[in-house]
Amino acid sequence: MFTGTQRTRSLRTLTFGSTGEDVKHLQRQLNVFRFGPLVVDGIFGVATEEAVKKFQKSSGLTVDGIVGSQTWARLEWLD
């Protein structure tokens, strides 16, 4: 059974301005859970930040727009 812990450890903290494959993964996850629609371009911009904040609020997490270990864990747990 996957608990999300192992995978989450390998994901870095993402903030506005971050770029890369992990941002694409984040954008895909947010689209799957209907917090988009986001363009999956690997750029953590305004739309991605707003989607993260909506996800955090709906998940009972601190709403800061930063994708740290708690936000990753919740995203991966729902996957």
What are the salient characteristics of this protein?
79 residues; mainly alpha; Muramoyl-pentapeptide Carboxypeptidase, domain 1; 51% helix; 0% strand; globular; disordered N terminus
Summarize this structure briefly.
It contains four helices and no strands. The chain is mostly helical and 79 residues long.
Description:
With 79 residues, the chain is mostly helical. The protein has a single domain (5-78), classed as PGBD-like superfamily/PGBD (Muramoyl-pentapeptide Carboxypeptidase, domain 1). The chain is 51% helix and 0% strand. It has four helices and no strands. The longest helix is centred in the middle third of the chain and has 13 residues, at 46-58. The radius of gyration is 11 Å and the shape is globular.
Number of E-type strands: 0
Oligomer: single chain
CATH architecture: Orthogonal Bundle
Average pLDDT figure: 89
CATH superfamily: PGBD-like superfamily/PGBD
Computed Rg = 11 Å
**Tally of helical runs:** 4
Q: Write down the domain tally.
A: 1
SSE order? HHHH
